[in-house]
Amino acid sequence: MSALSALPFLKPVHLRPPRSSPGGQRRHTLPASEFRCLSPEDAVSVFEIEREAFISVSGDCPLHLDEIRHFLNLCPELSLGWFEEGRLVAFIIGSLWDQERLSQAALTLHKPQGSAVHIHVLAVHRTVRQQGKGSILMWRYLQYLRCLPFARRALLMCEDFLVPFYQKCGFQALGPCEVTVGDLAFVEMQHPVRGHAFMRRNSGC
Known about the structure:
It catalyses: a 2-arylethylamine + acetyl-CoA = an N-acetyl-2-arylethylamine + CoA + H(+). The chain is of the alpha+beta class. About 25% of the residues lie in helices and about 20% in strands.
């Protein structure tokens, strides 16, 4: 069982009552909304959303399909997908990092002994953007990290225009990131992961 399935706030959330057939018997329907860890089987759906979201803006993706499969095999518990009626609409993929700041190696490595969660990518399907889903998903992800005893902080790198979004999510800018991708430069941001004992006592973690 994944760590995610044990957390009340990350169990499937049903946003509308089950439908009934004309005879009064309930029909089987997929959950209206569900949050769960991603698996390697989700990799293609993840990449399709990511490719559309990033290539039009920066010309490249943070993670390519083989890298998505790599992280979903190594550390699926550090990912989170938002599914609506069985369809992936938004996701986060992370891995562990063991240094104070991100370096070029952080783009491809998972450090199992690390205490920093490197958030590689957050993306939302184009049909449901401008609905606040990115902020909601990040909030749920950070709540989940608070229940992982090894997680002490979350790190990410983003372009300048995304800094205000992540600041609203509670991240603080650490300054320019040493990582570059082609001509792109990034700001490194951090979010402390606090309250481990409190969260474990009061949320069933």
